[in-house]
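Continuing the series of single-chain predictions for the mutant panel. This is the parent chain; the variants come on the following pages.
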Amino acid sequence: MVIRASGADAYNSYVASLGQVDSVETLTVHSRTGANDQFVVSKVRNAEALFIAGGDQADYLRLWKGTGLNEAVDYAIGRGVPVGGTSAGLAVLGEFVFSALNGTVYSPEALANPYNSYITLDRNFLAVPVLQAVIADSHFASRKRMGRLLVFMARVIKDGWAGEVKGIGIDEDTALLVETNGTAQPVGLGAAYFLLADHVPEVCQPSTPLTYSHVPVYKIQAGGTFNLLTWQGSGGELYYLSVTNGIISSSTGSVY
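Parent structure:
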């Protein structure tokens, strides 16, 4: 079952062609009325797999949060149904979410002002057990999103939402396959990045560039693994990032 807030059913034929499913359906739910419709709720509750399409995550938060559809997705997750998403569909899977209510934000403007009006955050939309305390971002290296992910994590801690937050960045043409025991492995052409922020940023305030030191990053590509419960990896590369007055430096010389 593909769910989305805009667009059509283009995924149906593609997923069906993979040869691993009996049927594929798409529900385009573009209103809160639709998200509370019992037909929609029943379809999602009884799905055998769920995929949240790309688009605009602001639509998912505005139209679905707190509705019967929201509860149905959580019900399906709770009974062990596989759930995934791409782009905006990935962004809403973690406990913490860049909600994009005022549009997107780019790393340079986020690093220059962690309280830029474009930085809107939300939490507790979906309840995926292995993604608690996680905020995720997509199109990662190609759109240079490391800086904004660091800012999102700094904001979560600075604003008192959590004492520790974990970030996952996933490149284009790449998927991260996660089991219920936390084991994750990337497939595809790019990499996955796992960040851990467990201390208060040195400087995180309005109209002032971010300063945040010593954030570990573990990077893996196909063949590497990472466990989201222990937050430990193998077959990849560990390095550290620091932000000083809005400028990122890396222990390896490369942010990515």
